[in-house]
Structure formats: C-alpha cells, structure tokens
Amino acid sequence: MGRCAPARVAEPADCRGHGRDPFRHRADKHAQASSAAPASGARERNGSRVSDFLAEHFAAVRGAADRIKPYVRRTPVLTTELDPHLRLKPECFQVTGSFKPRGAFNAVLSLMDRERPRGVIAVSSGNHAQAVALAARTVGIPALILIPEDANPAKVAATRALGAEVIQEGITFANREARLREVMAENKYTLVHPFDDWDVIHGQGSAAMELLADAPDLEVLAAPVGGGGLLSGTAIAGRAHSASMKVIGVEPEQADDAYRTWKSGTIQSLPASPRTLADGV
Fold this sequence. Notes:
Elements: E1 2-4, H1 27-36, H2 42-68, E2 78-80, E3 83-88, H3 100-114, E4 120-123, H4 127-139, E5 143-146, H5 153-161, E6 165-167, H6 176-187, E7 190-191, H7 198-214, E8 218-224, H8 229-241, E9 246-250, H9 257-264
Parallel strand pairs: 4-5, 4-7, 5-6, 8-9
Antiparallel strand pairs: 1-3, 1-8, 2-3
Helix pairs in contact: 2-3, 2-7, 2-8, 3-4, 3-7, 4-5, 7-8
C-alpha cells in the first residue's frame, strides 16, 4: 500500500502511470569501520556505504523480479474511495493468495542455480507453506512443511494439495523452531526461511518495485510486518526509488513484537500465538 503527497499538486496525483547472506553486510562491521574513521567527512563516507549497500540489494531485487516473473502474477494497483491519494497493491490476487510466492520462488530457484537440494523444508502457519510447496513442485524437488496444529485447515489442505509433506502433530507456535531444527538434522533438507533469508527478502521486494513502477509519485509505503521479510524488501525498493521515501510497518496490536523490537533495540518475540482476527500471524 502506498500514498501520494496531496500538497504537491492541485489535483489528486495520478499514480497509475542464503545461511544465505550474499553481501555479508553486518552491523558490527559497519560500527567498527565508523569508529575507526576520522570525524571529518564521516557522514559522506557513511552515506556512501549505505548507498552501496542499497544499490547491491536493489540490484538483487531486480534480479529476483526477473527470476520469478514466469511463476508469479504482476498484481494491479488499485485506487480506493477511502482517500484519492491512496494506492493498494492487492497481493491477495497473487498465486496461492498472498505475496509469499515471490520470496519462496526466488529462494528455491536460487537454490537450484547453486546446487540442487535434496529437498526444502519450512515452518509456516500457512501462506509461506503454500508458497514453498508450489515452488518446490514447480522445480521437481520434495518439500516438507511444519505447520502448527491450530493453523487454518484450508491452508493446510492447500499445502498438501500442492504436493508438500506436512507435519502437524505436536507442532505448536512455541516449539516449531526447535522441531524444525530436529527434522532438518534428520532429513538434510535445505531451509527456506519465511523471512530471515536474503533470497526471500529480495523476492518480496519485487511487490513494492512493481507498485512504484505503476505509481511512481508515492511518498509513503505501508507494509504488513510479521517476521520482517516483506517490510525489508519494501524498504529496499522504496528507498532505492526515492531517498525520502517513508516506509511504515503495520502489525496487529496483539502481535506487536516488531514494534517492541524497534522500541527496545533488541529482538522481541511473541510468547504464544496472538489472539487476533489477522490470519497467518
């Protein structure tokens, strides 16, 4: 979702027209470099590093968009009566019903380019599960998905229908990551993480890249945030489009781990599955 700035025009703006870390940019390395540099010109040098980082990652977003193009839909940009300056990117029209195939296909196709895995494994409440299942079936490799027992039954059924093996027995919101590590050790499948994976992030960023190609006057982007993969990709695409782009993450109040992480400066997590109408949190 994006919003144009109404003050710039007399009429409403026409906004129609993997461990995979390929770049090894770590916060501690940036901090060490900054502390070692002299004060004079530090801002310019830091700005250059940020620009280089952004350019590399946006190039990867563009590469991801090209890679996944045969397998995903370019969803439209919609207007709304809520606000004449508001534009919506309805990824509910995407294959499997969410934005998740963008990241899953980029991750799986990138794995195939590097070295064909024995299979892929993921943990998900349903959307990422379907996306990984579809991507794995498309390239002809097995997929194993751990889904909590209380997940949406329709999404579980769809994941199985797409050819994935699903494990639900004994899987909970609290223990799913630990169980994932155990199963990975048993079958040696390659993890396609739902958000903590650069290939996934770059794939998700293709949605915002499309939005900004269709609506280049947008000045604010809002994206849902769970683990942060979509928000990270959106931030890359948004700031590559405009250095002044404002990017906002949105989450349910009862699932506010991203907000608490941002405010505290340390990674926060939810102790249990949140009580919210939002599905797939």
